[in-house]
Amino acid sequence: MTVLVKPKALGDYKIREFRMLIDGKWVDGAEGRMIERVAPGHGVTVSRYQAATKIDAERAIAAARRAFDDGPWPRMTASERSLILLRAADMIAARADELAFLDAIESGKPISQAKGELAGAADIWRYAAALARDLSGESYNTLGDGTLGVVLREAIGVVSIITPWNFPFLIVSQKLPFALAAGCTTVVKPSELTSGSTLVLGEILEAAGVPAGVVNIIVGTGPEAGAPLTSHPDVDMVSFTGSTGVGRLTMANAAQTLKKVSLELGGKNPQIVFPDANLDEFIDAAVFGAYFNAGECCNAGSRLILHRDIADEVTARIAALSAKVKVGDPLDPETQVGAIITPQHLEKIASYVSAASSDGATVAHGGAALDLGMGQFMAPTILSSVRAEMAVAREEVFGPVLSVLTFETTEEAIKIANSIDYGLSAGVWSRDFDTCLTIGRRVRAGTIWMNTFMDGASELPFGGYRQSGLGRELGRHAVEDYTETKTLNMHIGQRTNWWMPR
Ligand code: NAD
User: Fold this and answer.
1) Which residues of the chain register pLDDT less than 70?
2) Residue 298 among the catalytic residues
């Protein structure tokens, strides 16, 4: 059983039409083609965007290049840039309901969650505004009488920002304000499935005072509009969040001109639970970790690694709580799990579940798609008796599917946790300090949560080990990522000649 919240028909909903932002102007794509977005929870078209091609991508890159080479943005004081970012943060907060609605209807996520993401995003813009003024280099007055060394941090230049569909506004906010704080100019390409809120962000940034050409926003498919942003010689850096496969391709494309790349990729994150854990707290975190954003989350806690002594009890309790999770209409404030992004993705999720069942896993809850009259939905699903080598335990399902594995010793738990290609995040649950720290130090992942799961703050760096990515976002060094380092090596007084020593 699952608690269903049937979607209400959108009735005479007015489809939103969007244009692209290139060089300070809202324009149509060169070929005039459109992309239609069908709401995953309602099955009807809700947004129409202009589809960019290579020609539009190249125009946007040229505008960003001009704005960097000749425009005011990189030359402003950090305090001026910071003020504009703060103004943008206020405007994001003022338009949060509209932006959250767009994210909810285009991605299928619950509206209450989308509102939370908008609040988090506004906080990140404010944090980036603060960091802008703290960006500084180093000086060395210790190199002898004849030398003074100064290390400068300079904006890296034109940055391509490519984002996925699962957290449309939050993820662009983990990149763009930091690039702007450093003085970079940008071309942003959101996912073609959820571009609305990023395009509204373009309006906000114009109104906040970001000069023309500094932020260009194009919409289009990856191969058509995204690929040129990763290979064009006038782009200095690519900041990409998305799947590991496309991340790999992005790095290969960027390698042709040796661009800097920052990659935030997939995850298959374990939660390791010991018998002395506070199980009441953990059961809630397990359900939240697995089903938040319908499991379409790089940080999803999709692998439970339970101590054998508690595995049956914990699985039964998670199954009981899963039955209470409210699944359905993304626009209903009560909904906890919304729709699945596309019908094709729902099929992929269901095929992981059926493959695991055929391979010996047991469905402890859910296991199938849900028919709510419109849109596409998946039941919160728990698979027990999963073996570590099964695809469902190793690959990113990207749906509300939780795999339960078991362990007997701490070493075994660490081995299972580290046995896959991903290393984004992990959780450990125990009341024992030594146990938590041992897991915290030995599990190879960018974030380890101890007795909690999927918490975050703008101050805390986020990113992955191994095939979960390269580089870190957020945290106090986030602005530095968008800079180059330059050494000024200055000579004072008479130089010792090489050719004719004096
Ligand atoms: P995706 O890789 O399919 O697409 C991401 C973006 O890349 C989209 O804008 C897409 O249009 C673009 N793209 C696709 N092909 C491209 C190409 N050849 N060249 C340039 N750009 C291209 O990912 P998705 O399905 O949108 O998002 C889900 C994935 O994102 C999951 O794997 C998830 O784990 C990952 N993700 C990671 C994080 C993180 O911070 N680590 C956060 C959110 C999502």
Assistant:
1) 501-502
2) yes
